[in-house]
Design a protein that fits this description.
homodimer, mainly alpha, about 0% strand
Protein backbone atom coordinates (compact mmCIF):
# COMPACT_ATOMS: atom_id res chain seq x y z
CA UNK A 1 0.00 0.00 0.00
CA UNK A 2 2.76 2.47 0.92
CA UNK A 3 4.74 1.71 -2.24
CA UNK A 4 1.61 2.23 -4.36
CA UNK A 5 0.91 5.45 -2.47
CA UNK A 6 4.45 6.78 -3.01
CA UNK A 7 4.24 6.07 -6.74
CA UNK A 8 0.81 7.71 -7.04
CA UNK A 9 1.74 10.83 -5.06
CA UNK A 10 4.99 11.29 -6.98
CA UNK A 11 3.36 10.76 -10.39
CA UNK A 12 0.06 12.57 -9.95
CA UNK A 13 0.74 14.87 -7.02
CA UNK A 14 -1.15 15.01 -3.73
CA UNK A 15 -4.34 16.39 -5.28
CA UNK A 16 -4.32 14.06 -8.28
CA UNK A 17 -3.77 10.82 -6.37
CA UNK A 18 -6.92 9.13 -5.02
CA UNK A 19 -7.19 6.56 -2.27
CA UNK A 20 -9.32 4.48 -4.63
CA UNK A 21 -6.59 4.39 -7.32
CA UNK A 22 -3.90 3.65 -4.74
CA UNK A 23 -5.95 0.78 -3.34
CA UNK A 24 -6.50 -0.63 -6.85
CA UNK A 25 -2.76 -0.41 -7.62
CA UNK A 26 -2.00 -2.20 -4.35
CA UNK A 27 -4.70 -4.84 -5.01
CA UNK A 28 -6.68 -4.08 -1.86
CA UNK A 29 -10.07 -2.61 -1.02
CA UNK A 30 -10.20 1.19 -0.50
CA UNK A 31 -11.92 0.54 2.84
CA UNK A 32 -8.75 -1.20 4.02
CA UNK A 33 -6.65 1.87 3.18
CA UNK A 34 -9.10 4.05 5.10
CA UNK A 35 -9.05 1.61 7.99
CA UNK A 36 -5.25 1.63 8.27
CA UNK A 37 -4.48 5.25 7.48
CA UNK A 38 -7.64 7.28 7.99
CA UNK A 39 -7.31 10.27 5.68
CA UNK A 40 -5.35 10.87 2.50
CA UNK A 41 -3.19 13.29 4.51
CA UNK A 42 -2.22 10.54 6.91
CA UNK A 43 -1.60 8.02 4.12
CA UNK A 44 0.67 10.56 2.46
CA UNK A 45 2.62 11.27 5.67
CA UNK A 46 3.10 7.53 6.22
CA UNK A 47 4.14 7.01 2.59
CA UNK A 48 6.92 9.60 2.74
CA UNK A 49 7.90 8.57 6.30
CA UNK A 50 7.41 12.17 7.44
CA UNK A 51 9.16 12.69 10.78
CA UNK A 52 6.17 14.73 12.00
CA UNK A 53 2.68 15.85 11.04
CA UNK A 54 2.78 19.60 10.37
CA UNK A 55 -0.89 19.84 11.31
CA UNK A 56 0.13 19.21 14.93
CA UNK A 57 2.17 22.42 14.98
CA UNK A 58 -0.36 24.58 13.20
CA UNK A 59 -2.44 25.85 16.16
CA UNK A 60 0.67 27.30 17.81
CA UNK A 61 1.84 28.94 14.58
CA UNK A 62 -1.56 30.53 14.05
CA UNK A 63 -2.15 31.49 17.69
CA UNK A 64 -0.39 34.86 17.44
CA UNK A 65 -2.69 36.02 14.67
CA UNK A 66 -2.04 37.29 11.20
CA UNK A 67 0.59 39.88 12.11
CA UNK A 68 2.86 37.43 13.88
CA UNK A 69 2.54 34.65 11.34
CA UNK A 70 5.93 35.28 9.71
CA UNK A 71 7.95 35.13 12.91
CA UNK A 72 5.94 32.20 14.23
CA UNK A 73 6.49 30.15 11.07
CA UNK A 74 10.25 30.68 11.30
CA UNK A 75 10.24 29.96 15.05
CA UNK A 76 8.38 26.67 14.57
CA UNK A 77 10.60 25.60 11.67
CA UNK A 78 13.70 26.14 13.82
CA UNK A 79 12.18 24.37 16.82
CA UNK A 80 11.47 21.28 14.71
CA UNK A 81 14.86 21.36 13.01
CA UNK A 82 16.86 22.03 16.18
CA UNK A 83 15.06 19.14 17.92
CA UNK A 84 15.27 15.35 17.78
CA UNK A 85 13.72 15.22 14.30
CA UNK A 86 16.74 16.87 12.69
CA UNK A 87 18.44 13.67 11.44
CA UNK A 88 15.24 12.39 9.80
CA UNK A 89 14.44 15.80 8.34
CA UNK A 90 18.00 16.15 7.00
CA UNK A 91 17.81 12.71 5.40
CA UNK A 92 14.53 13.71 3.71
CA UNK A 93 16.00 16.95 2.32
CA UNK A 94 19.22 15.29 1.10
CA UNK A 95 17.23 12.58 -0.62
CA UNK A 96 14.76 15.06 -2.14
CA UNK A 97 17.48 17.19 -3.70
CA UNK A 98 19.40 14.21 -5.03
CA UNK A 99 16.47 12.20 -6.40
CA UNK A 100 13.75 13.53 -8.70
CA UNK A 101 11.10 11.17 -7.36
CA UNK A 102 11.71 12.00 -3.70
CA UNK A 103 11.90 15.64 -4.74
CA UNK A 104 8.36 15.49 -6.08
CA UNK A 105 7.18 13.92 -2.83
CA UNK A 106 8.87 16.62 -0.74
CA UNK A 107 7.31 19.31 -2.91
CA UNK A 108 3.86 17.73 -2.42
CA UNK A 109 4.53 17.54 1.31
CA UNK A 110 5.54 21.19 1.52
CA UNK A 111 2.65 22.42 -0.60
CA UNK A 112 -0.19 20.20 0.65
CA UNK A 113 0.79 19.71 4.31
CA UNK A 114 2.64 22.88 5.28
CA UNK A 115 2.16 25.91 3.03
CA UNK A 116 -1.49 25.40 2.17
CA UNK A 117 -2.38 25.24 5.86
CA UNK A 118 -0.49 28.40 6.71
CA UNK A 119 -1.92 30.42 3.82
CA UNK A 120 -5.45 29.02 4.27
CA UNK A 121 -5.96 31.62 6.98
CA UNK A 122 -5.25 34.51 4.58
CA UNK A 123 -7.95 36.52 2.90
CA UNK A 124 -6.80 35.95 -0.69
CA UNK A 125 -7.65 34.13 -3.91
CA UNK A 126 -6.34 30.58 -4.39
CA UNK A 127 -3.74 31.79 -6.93
CA UNK A 128 -2.53 34.49 -4.52
CA UNK A 129 -2.34 31.99 -1.70
CA UNK A 130 -0.33 29.60 -3.86
CA UNK A 131 2.10 32.36 -4.89
CA UNK A 132 2.53 33.63 -1.32
CA UNK A 133 3.05 30.07 -0.07
CA UNK A 134 5.70 29.42 -2.72
CA UNK A 135 7.59 32.61 -1.82
CA UNK A 136 7.53 31.54 1.83
CA UNK A 137 8.86 28.14 0.74
CA UNK A 138 11.74 29.80 -1.12
CA UNK A 139 12.90 31.51 2.08
CA UNK A 140 12.34 28.58 4.44
CA UNK A 141 14.01 26.00 2.18
CA UNK A 142 16.99 28.32 1.84
CA UNK A 143 17.21 28.83 5.60
CA UNK A 144 17.19 25.06 6.15
CA UNK A 145 19.84 24.38 3.49
CA UNK A 146 22.07 27.29 4.57
CA UNK A 147 21.85 26.53 8.33
CA UNK A 148 21.68 22.74 8.51
CA UNK A 149 23.10 21.40 5.24
CA UNK A 150 25.80 23.84 4.06
CA UNK A 151 26.29 25.35 7.54
CA UNK A 152 26.87 28.92 6.35
CA UNK A 153 27.92 31.17 9.25
CA UNK A 154 26.58 33.01 11.17
CA UNK A 155 23.30 31.24 10.28
CA UNK A 156 24.56 27.82 11.40
CA UNK A 157 25.46 28.96 14.94
CA UNK A 158 22.94 31.76 15.49
CA UNK A 159 20.35 31.49 18.26
CA UNK A 160 16.86 30.73 16.89
CA UNK A 161 15.42 34.06 18.07
CA UNK A 162 18.09 35.96 16.12
CA UNK A 163 16.95 34.20 12.97
CA UNK A 164 13.31 34.86 13.81
CA UNK A 165 14.16 38.57 14.11
CA UNK A 166 16.10 38.69 10.84
CA UNK A 167 14.04 36.36 8.63
CA UNK A 168 10.56 36.55 10.18
CA UNK A 169 9.85 39.93 8.49
CA UNK A 170 10.62 38.40 5.08
CA UNK A 171 8.12 35.59 5.64
CA UNK A 172 5.59 38.10 6.99
CA UNK A 173 5.93 40.24 3.87
CA UNK A 174 5.47 37.22 1.62
CA UNK A 175 2.36 36.19 3.56
CA UNK A 176 0.57 39.49 4.12
CA UNK A 177 2.65 42.33 2.67
CA UNK A 178 2.54 44.19 -0.60
CA UNK A 179 4.27 41.89 -3.05
CA UNK A 180 4.11 41.73 -6.84
CA UNK A 181 3.10 38.09 -6.93
CA UNK A 182 4.59 35.79 -9.60
CA UNK A 183 2.27 33.77 -11.80
CA UNK A 184 2.87 30.34 -13.28
CA UNK B 1 47.04 19.39 -7.98
CA UNK B 2 43.25 19.69 -8.28
CA UNK B 3 42.66 16.74 -5.95
CA UNK B 4 45.01 18.25 -3.38
CA UNK B 5 43.26 21.59 -3.79
CA UNK B 6 39.79 20.08 -3.30
CA UNK B 7 40.93 18.32 -0.12
CA UNK B 8 42.56 21.48 1.26
CA UNK B 9 39.62 23.76 0.49
CA UNK B 10 37.09 21.30 1.97
CA UNK B 11 39.15 20.69 5.11
CA UNK B 12 40.48 24.16 5.86
CA UNK B 13 38.09 26.40 3.94
CA UNK B 14 38.99 28.91 1.26
CA UNK B 15 40.79 31.26 3.64
CA UNK B 16 42.65 28.53 5.51
CA UNK B 17 44.02 26.73 2.46
CA UNK B 18 47.28 28.08 1.03
CA UNK B 19 48.73 27.53 -2.43
CA UNK B 20 52.01 26.56 -0.74
CA UNK B 21 50.34 23.77 1.30
CA UNK B 22 48.38 22.54 -1.71
CA UNK B 23 51.58 22.42 -3.78
CA UNK B 24 53.36 20.49 -1.04
CA UNK B 25 50.49 17.99 -0.77
CA UNK B 26 50.57 17.53 -4.56
CA UNK B 27 54.36 17.18 -4.56
CA UNK B 28 54.98 20.13 -6.88
CA UNK B 29 56.53 23.58 -6.62
CA UNK B 30 54.17 26.44 -5.62
CA UNK B 31 55.40 28.33 -8.69
CA UNK B 32 53.91 25.61 -10.87
CA UNK B 33 50.50 26.06 -9.25
CA UNK B 34 50.72 29.80 -9.82
CA UNK B 35 51.79 29.21 -13.40
CA UNK B 36 48.86 26.93 -14.19
CA UNK B 37 46.11 28.61 -12.22
CA UNK B 38 47.18 32.17 -11.47
CA UNK B 39 45.37 33.12 -8.28
CA UNK B 40 43.93 31.09 -5.40
CA UNK B 41 40.47 32.14 -6.65
CA UNK B 42 41.14 30.55 -10.01
CA UNK B 43 42.63 27.41 -8.51
CA UNK B 44 39.53 27.10 -6.35
CA UNK B 45 37.15 27.55 -9.29
CA UNK B 46 39.06 24.92 -11.27
CA UNK B 47 39.10 22.53 -8.29
CA UNK B 48 35.31 22.61 -7.84
CA UNK B 49 34.72 22.64 -11.62
CA UNK B 50 32.67 25.82 -11.25
CA UNK B 51 30.53 26.32 -14.35
CA UNK B 52 31.36 30.05 -14.27
CA UNK B 53 33.46 32.65 -12.48
CA UNK B 54 31.13 34.89 -10.45
CA UNK B 55 33.66 37.72 -10.73
CA UNK B 56 32.76 38.00 -14.43
CA UNK B 57 29.17 38.92 -13.54
CA UNK B 58 30.00 41.31 -10.73
CA UNK B 59 30.38 44.59 -12.68
CA UNK B 60 26.86 44.24 -14.08
CA UNK B 61 25.39 43.42 -10.67
CA UNK B 62 27.05 46.44 -9.11
CA UNK B 63 26.39 48.82 -12.02
CA UNK B 64 22.96 49.92 -10.75
CA UNK B 65 24.39 51.11 -7.46
CA UNK B 66 23.57 50.27 -3.90
CA UNK B 67 19.80 50.73 -4.12
CA UNK B 68 19.35 48.28 -6.99
CA UNK B 69 21.71 45.63 -5.68
CA UNK B 70 18.94 43.32 -4.41
CA UNK B 71 17.04 43.15 -7.68
CA UNK B 72 20.24 42.92 -9.71
CA UNK B 73 21.56 40.00 -7.66
CA UNK B 74 18.30 38.08 -8.21
CA UNK B 75 18.25 39.01 -11.92
CA UNK B 76 21.81 37.75 -12.45
CA UNK B 77 21.18 34.54 -10.50
CA UNK B 78 18.18 33.77 -12.70
CA UNK B 79 20.04 34.65 -15.91
CA UNK B 80 22.82 32.21 -15.05
CA UNK B 81 20.41 29.49 -13.94
CA UNK B 82 18.01 29.89 -16.87
CA UNK B 83 20.95 29.70 -19.30
CA UNK B 84 23.20 26.94 -20.62
CA UNK B 85 24.96 26.51 -17.27
CA UNK B 86 21.84 25.14 -15.60
CA UNK B 87 22.74 21.42 -15.91
CA UNK B 88 26.22 21.94 -14.44
CA UNK B 89 24.88 24.20 -11.70
CA UNK B 90 22.13 21.71 -10.84
CA UNK B 91 24.66 18.89 -10.65
CA UNK B 92 26.78 20.97 -8.27
CA UNK B 93 23.82 21.72 -5.98
CA UNK B 94 22.57 18.14 -5.94
CA UNK B 95 26.02 16.89 -5.11
CA UNK B 96 26.58 19.56 -2.43
CA UNK B 97 23.37 18.71 -0.58
CA UNK B 98 23.97 14.96 -0.76
CA UNK B 99 27.65 14.93 0.15
CA UNK B 100 29.25 16.67 3.13
CA UNK B 101 32.57 17.23 1.39
CA UNK B 102 31.05 18.79 -1.72
CA UNK B 103 28.75 20.76 0.57
CA UNK B 104 31.75 22.36 2.24
CA UNK B 105 33.20 23.27 -1.15
CA UNK B 106 29.90 24.83 -2.30
CA UNK B 107 29.72 26.83 0.93
CA UNK B 108 33.27 28.11 0.38
CA UNK B 109 32.36 28.96 -3.21
CA UNK B 110 29.26 30.89 -2.16
CA UNK B 111 30.99 32.74 0.66
CA UNK B 112 34.38 33.50 -0.93
CA UNK B 113 33.43 33.93 -4.60
CA UNK B 114 29.88 35.27 -4.55
CA UNK B 115 28.68 36.80 -1.28
CA UNK B 116 31.91 38.42 -0.18
CA UNK B 117 32.17 40.25 -3.50
CA UNK B 118 28.61 41.54 -3.35
CA UNK B 119 28.84 42.73 0.26
CA UNK B 120 32.36 44.16 -0.19
CA UNK B 121 30.72 47.28 -1.60
CA UNK B 122 28.70 47.90 1.58
CA UNK B 123 29.73 50.33 4.25
CA UNK B 124 29.73 47.87 7.16
CA UNK B 125 31.98 45.95 9.55
CA UNK B 126 33.28 42.52 8.46
CA UNK B 127 30.88 40.76 10.87
CA UNK B 128 27.93 42.74 9.52
CA UNK B 129 28.94 41.98 5.96
CA UNK B 130 29.23 38.28 6.75
CA UNK B 131 25.78 38.24 8.39
CA UNK B 132 24.14 40.17 5.54
CA UNK B 133 25.80 37.90 2.98
CA UNK B 134 24.57 34.78 4.80
CA UNK B 135 21.00 36.12 4.91
CA UNK B 136 21.18 36.79 1.17
CA UNK B 137 22.46 33.24 0.70
CA UNK B 138 19.48 31.85 2.62
CA UNK B 139 17.06 33.50 0.18
CA UNK B 140 19.00 32.75 -3.01
CA UNK B 141 19.67 29.10 -2.15
CA UNK B 142 15.97 28.66 -1.40
CA UNK B 143 14.96 30.29 -4.67
CA UNK B 144 17.27 27.94 -6.59
CA UNK B 145 16.05 24.82 -4.79
CA UNK B 146 12.35 25.81 -4.99
CA UNK B 147 12.47 26.85 -8.68
CA UNK B 148 14.97 24.45 -10.25
CA UNK B 149 15.16 21.40 -7.97
CA UNK B 150 11.74 20.92 -6.35
CA UNK B 151 9.93 22.95 -9.03
CA UNK B 152 7.42 24.57 -6.67
CA UNK B 153 4.79 26.53 -8.64
CA UNK B 154 4.37 29.35 -9.52
CA UNK B 155 8.12 29.88 -8.90
CA UNK B 156 9.16 27.19 -11.39
CA UNK B 157 7.24 28.72 -14.33
CA UNK B 158 7.33 32.42 -13.42
CA UNK B 159 9.10 34.90 -15.70
CA UNK B 160 12.43 36.06 -14.23
CA UNK B 161 11.29 39.67 -13.86
CA UNK B 162 8.32 38.56 -11.74
CA UNK B 163 10.74 36.89 -9.36
CA UNK B 164 13.00 39.94 -9.36
CA UNK B 165 9.98 42.04 -8.35
CA UNK B 166 8.87 39.67 -5.59
CA UNK B 167 12.22 38.54 -4.15
CA UNK B 168 14.54 41.45 -5.01
CA UNK B 169 13.20 43.56 -2.10
CA UNK B 170 14.06 40.74 0.34
CA UNK B 171 17.65 40.62 -0.88
CA UNK B 172 17.82 44.42 -0.81
CA UNK B 173 16.65 44.49 2.80
CA UNK B 174 19.22 41.86 3.79
CA UNK B 175 21.98 43.87 2.07
CA UNK B 176 21.19 47.44 3.05
CA UNK B 177 18.01 47.52 5.15
CA UNK B 178 17.37 47.63 8.85
CA UNK B 179 17.85 44.04 10.00
CA UNK B 180 18.61 42.62 13.41
CA UNK B 181 21.68 40.74 12.28
CA UNK B 182 22.36 37.23 13.63
CA UNK B 183 25.73 36.50 15.23
CA UNK B 184 27.64 33.22 15.22
Amino acid sequence: MLAAARAAFAERGFDGASIRAIATAAGVDPALVHHYFGSKDQLFLAAIEAPANPADFLPEVLAGGRDELGGNVVRMLLRVWDGPMQPAALALVRSAVGNEWTGKLLREFLVSQVLRRVVATLDATPAEREARGALVASQLIGLVVARYVLRVEPLASAAPEELVAAIGPTVQRYLTGEVELPRA
